[in-house]
Every structure is written in C-alpha cells, then in structure tokens.
Amino acid sequence: MTDAPTLSAREAFDLLLDGNQRFVSGAPQHPNQDAARRAEIAPSQKPFAVLFGCSDSRLAAEIIFDRGLGDLFVVRTAGHVAGPEVLGSIEFGVSVLDAPLVVVLGHDSCGAVGAARSALETGQTPPGFVQDVVERVTPSVLAARAAGDDTVEGALDEHIRRTVDMLLERSRDLAERVESGRAAVVGMCYRLTDGSARLVAARGIDVAVPARS
Prior knowledge:
This protein is α/β, with parallel strands linked by helices and 213 residues long. Strand 1, helix 3 and strand 2 form a beta-alpha-beta unit. The radius of gyration is 17 Å and the shape is globular.
C-alpha cells in the first residue's frame, strides 16, 4: 500500500513518472488492483495525488500512470476547465485527504482547445453548454498568440500553465500549502500516440521543465 501521508510532493511525482514510463514501455505492473487492495482501502482513502485532467476517453489516469485503487483522487472535465465544484473537489483531495501533489493533465489533440481555436477563426461557437467550455479555453489560445505562438501545441501548453496558476490564485488553501512546502502543483501534457506524459509547469517542486519537443 502507498502510505500517502509520508510522501513528499517530489516522491509522489516520481511515482507517477515511474508508472508512466512502465506504461509507455508496455510493461505495466498494475499495482493495487487486486482484491486485497480493495478490502484494505474500503474503510478510508489516502491518495498520494490529486489529478485534475481532461475528460477525454483516451486519458484514463490510473492506466497511463500505472496506478491502482486508492492511489489517485481524480477530477475530470472537458478541457480541464474549472468551476466551483472542481475547485472544491481539488481542495477536498488536498485539505481533507492530505494529498501532497496536484497534477493538471492536458493532452494533444484536445477537442476543447481545437474548438476554441476554430471559434476564434470562424466567429462561430458551439451550442449549449459546450460554448461555456470553449469560452473558458479561449483566453489560453489568445495568450499563446499574444506570446507569438499560434500553434495548437502552444495553445495547449498555455492552457495547462494557466490552469495551474488559476488553481493557486483561486484556492487559498492550496496556495498556502504550496508556499509552506506541504504540497506542489504540476502541469503535464499527455501524448496520445506514445503514451508519454510531459512536464509543462511546476509550482512548489524542484523539477526542471523541459523544452517542448
């Protein structure tokens, strides 16, 4: 069992990286997915990370990071856009469950980012509540363009970074935990073709953010 309260944010991050490397190489271990683990965590949960990701069906967190039951507290919305319910869920994972790490997980070929780019180009927005998702992603596309990057990848990375910053700006508890060294927030981008998760942003953790390849 992963004893989450004893883990640092860096140790939690390394667990995720190790699991993703196993997934990419085609040698997953499928930890904590048996009947014993199910019985062990039935009374309570102690996840070592909160994962806020896109709802895309190709982005199943426990699979791509090779984890199991009770390891991750997962919150997902289209385009990883965050409203009060999302912020409350993330705060629950950090404040109540004491997870030391929050991961914002985006991915390439994101429909929300593509729709925001299309709406800016055509002036036409999707109907219904999908429009709300697109409107929340649009500022990231505009910010990337203002910085001189009009690529899909640039918009995606900017949206991940802005989501990380937004969580810290809007959640006082999360910001205080990061400032005091009790938690960290990272942004990652998942590549659909090879299964790898690339670091895009890091707050409160001493890891180098690699340049986009």
